[in-house]
Specification:
This protein is an alpha/beta fold. The protein has a single domain, classed as Metallo-dependent phosphatases (Purple Acid Phosphatase, chain A, domain 2). Strands 4-5-6-7-9-8 form a six-stranded mixed beta sheet, with helices on one face. Strands 3-2-1-12-13 form a five-stranded mixed beta sheet, with no helix packed on it. Strands 10-11 form a two-stranded antiparallel ribbon. A hairpin with a 2-residue loop joins strand 8 and strand 9. The radius of gyration is 18 Å and the shape is globular. Bound molecules: fe (ii) ion.
């Protein structure tokens, strides 16, 4: 039986929005630390201010909220994310500890009812969000077990309404050795569920620390960039795993008036402009 959350108690009543207006800010891979470099926290603060100015209906945070899985890191993230004016929702990443996230964040941000995996459904009038916990301590690139595949199958079977799956790990290979090897365990189980449910509009994830899009099982998978750690990557050469200190960045997914979805990327790198095209 799918676990369906109650209406979140925080933020504006996004369920009351009319069809065609859904706007979702999607941030990922915050990797917050405490006591050391404050850059990631500063980037997150900048993103929160930018997102608040755009008034989305909700904010999705697709994992790796902490860098060392520490409770203090989760508490620091919760302190900053509490400044969001829209409701926000989390899914854990491989750098997080489930218990730490549950202790640091309000239940409304992580409304899973079962403990084995922190998966849940956000029910909206025009859209459903299915948060799928893809983490496993022994699988750094994610794992979908039989129980989670069955949970997703049941959740998707409850409604044919347009749906987004929201998880930390991309299910497909990204051409990035760090996230492709080893591949996600149980991706075949997930593929079978996804292929059966045509209402899935997007699979939103993070983990790769690059903005990546791919068509997988006929659905668009959108990996959000990290809040400030962009992977050093080349399609031609394998380099040791490194990252750049990158400007704050996130994705914006929007339900258009025609019912379709479009995704944009914001990078807060303070470019010159804007300039007229004429
Ligand atoms: Fe990450």
């Amino acid at each position: 039986m799918a676990k369906t959350c109650r209406r979140p108690s925080h933020g504006p009543a996004w369920k009351a929005r009319v069809a065609g207006s859904m706007k979702i800010a999607h941030i990922s891979d915050l990797h917050l630390t405490v006591g050391g470099e404050a850059r990631m926290a500063q980037n997150l603060e900048m993103l929160v201010a930018h997102i608040n100015a755009l008034s989305p209906d909700m904010v999705l945070v697709s994992g790796d909220i902490t860098h060392n899985a520490l409770l203090t890191e989760a508490e620091r993230a919760a302190e900053i994310l509490a400044k969001l004016t829209a409701p926000y929702y989390l899914t854990p990443g491989n750098h997080d500890r489930r218990e730490g996230l549950q202790a640091a964040f309000p239940a409304a941000a992580l409304p899973a009812e079962q403990q084995a995996h922190l998966s849940y459904v956000i029910e909206g009038e025009t859209l459903r969000i299915l948060a799928l916990d893809s983490t496993d301590p022994d699988a750094p690139n994610g794992r979908i077990c039989q129980a989670r595949a069955a949970w997703l199958e049941a959740a998707l079977g409850q409604s044919a309404k347009p749906a987004l799956i929201f998880m930390h790990h991309p299910p497909m290979k990204c051409g990035v050795e760090e996230t492709d090897c080893p591949p996600m365990q149980g991706a075949d189980l997930l593929a079978k569920v996804v292929a059966r449910h045509l209402q899935i509009e997007r699979i939103l994830c993070g983990h790769v620390h690059l903005p990546v899009q791919a068509l997988w099982q006929g659905r668009l998978v959108c990996a959000a960039p990290s809040v400030g750690m962009r992977l050093s990557w080349s399609p031609n050469a394998r380099a040791s795993s490194q990252y750049f200190s990158s400007p704050p960045a996130y994705l914006w997914h929007m339900q258009n008036s025609d019912g379709g979805f479009v995704s944009h990327e914001f990078t807060l790198d303070d470019p010159a402009g804007p300039f007229d095209f004429t």
